[in-house]
TrEMBL record:
GO molecular function: cytokine activity; growth factor activity
Gene expressing this chain: INHBAB
A Pfam family: TGF_beta
Annotated protein name in UniProt: Inhibin, beta Ab
Domain of life of the native organism: Eukaryota
Similarity annotation: Belongs to the TGF-beta family.
Gene3D superfamilies: Cystine-knot cytokines
Main location: secreted
GO cellular component, one term: extracellular space
Subcellular location: Secreted
Keywords: Growth factor, Secreted
Residues of the TGF-beta family profile domain: 39-85
Alphabetized InterPro entries for the sequence: Cystine-knot_cytokine, TGF-b_C, TGF-beta-rel
Length: 85
């Protein structure tokens, strides 16, 4: 296996007579995307100083709302939401 863009060396896997445990490699390829098509990360956390849309963290703990007797796992989840203009 040779990845020319990364510059990695080829991988050589010797295969013996026992064919029952042959190694395999599954590879998924996708075409290289242009810079303009890539999604821009916008994980802006709210800090009280900005008024644009930002992520407000909110954790729902099932024990706090009395649901821990019928929801075994997980103990809660992050129900973050957007806040701002």
């Amino acid at each position: 296996l040779l990845c020319s863009k990364v510059g990695a060396l080829p991988i050589l896997v010797p295969v013996g007579r026992d064919q029952s445990h042959r190694p395999f490699l599954m590879v998924k390829l996708r075409a290289e995307e242009e810079e303009s098509l890539r999604r821009v990360k916008r994980g802006l956390e709210c800090n009280g100083k900005i008024h644009i849309c930002c992520k407000r963290q909110f954790y729902v703990n099932f024990k706090d709302i009395g649901w821990n007797d019928w929801i075994i796992a997980p103990s809660g989840y992050h129900a973050n939401y957007c806040e701002g203009d």
